[in-house]
Specification:
254 residues, alpha/beta, TIM Barrel, eight-stranded parallel beta barrel, single chain
Length: 254
Amino acid sequence: MKKRMIVAANWKMNKNLSEAIEFLEKLNFHIDENDSQSSVIIFPPFIGLESLAGKFNSNNFYLGSQNFYYEESGAFTGEVSISMLEHIGIDYAIIGHSERRSLFYENDNLINKKIRSCLASSINPILCIGESLEQRDSSLTENTLKNQLKSGLKNIDALKLDKLMIAYEPIWAIGTGKTATVDQIYSTHQQIKGILNELFNDESHDLPILYGGSVNDKNAKEIGMIDNVNGFLIGGASLKIETFCEIIDLCNFN
């Protein structure tokens, strides 16, 4: 059976609105012309979300938000609520990215509140988890991921898990050019599946697990062929249209 891949692009703080529109027009054309079977999710900066939502009609194209706040409304300067994202037709949201954890001090309690807020909406959350190089070298990878999953998914109803995706992003491989080996990715994704089954009494419904960490057009095919990899969350390599389209094409191999 052919595996349907999920190719997600986290643009981070890159591309103004004109650049985003030009990129997505080319992407939309490429997806339609090549009959791509991959699901493609683009996470642009906030300034582009409203203008881009609903603009592209490919059946396999989705738009996501890089961030949001868990409260419905109120005196939270600079924040955007999940209902505001729903109102303009956003499909996905990233939660718990290592840059949000480290640079903006988002803790496990806040991440859990965001997950619960997202699951109560029509928007699908992608929960990011990952270990530092020091934690991997100290054989603490599984323990670190377990703590992140346990706290992030605390008090979550197993019946709502079908909306959730997990993105495994080893911190030491994000933007560094270093990529985990095939064996490391396979074994870590297996650990994640085991942790989820333990947390939800085997009711985790085989959640999609994406890999992120210096994915590019040179390694996407090899990583995508790993049985328990359901797609990618891509940073830098998603900013060039030619490279990103090449990665999408490479995901139609299996």
